Amino acid sequence: MQVMKFAVTPGFQIGGTIFKPEQLAVLGSIVGADAKIELTTFKQLYVEMQVEKMDEVKEKLSDIGLEIYPTGFVTKSLITCNFCRGAEDAGLEMAEALNKAISGIETPVPLKIGYAGCALGTSEPLLKDIGVVKMRDTFDIYVGGEPKSLKPSFAVLLMSDVQADRLIPMVQKLIHHFQQHGKMKEKFSKFINRITIEALHEAIAE
């Protein structure tokens, strides 16, 4: 019997990635006894289940406030901080807009994008492929974090003082440049090392 996989998140809110008990109850009750649910490092739940029930399940999950995303070689839903400074100060609205703009885009490897509402960086943006840090009224963009390695490395600063209206286009340009020039299964950090960060900066700044 054919099975497929999709990702589920509760969306963004003050306090972090929080699934409500009733959401988990509905999820468990409708996916079927044979389904598999996996917790990922992307703050998503992966659900693997029979294809014929997929549309019905996705509709019911959306009705209770859960967000559905594709799995595989795509940009993952935005990994955020807990917005401890409040929705406005930490840029919750910007995070929501950025997530809608970048989630689920096909890429040579799964791409992790982090967002932090201040320089404390509690969502660990410097360990993500692309990290966005809100710095008062502007944003810094970091690239190339690599936590899964015998030689882990922090992301490096690509652009600073990015205005709010330019943030989403800049991140989209980064993703599209990787789409066009990255090799299949090439990690984003290795892609940057291959083309150089100077060339990447020049490509998206044009």
From TrEMBL:
Organismal lineage: Bacteria, Bacillati, Bacillota, Bacilli, Bacillales
Identification of the protein by name: Nitrite reductase
SUPFAM superfamilies, A to Z: Nitrite and sulphite reductase 4Fe-4S domain-like
Keyword Iron: yes
Glycoprotein is among the record's keywords: no
A Pfam family recorded for this sequence: NIR_SIR
Coiled coil: none
Domain Nitrite/sulphite reductase 4Fe-4S span(s) in chain numbering: 93-204
Assigned keywords, A-Z: Heme, Iron, Iron-sulfur, Metal-binding, Oxidoreductase
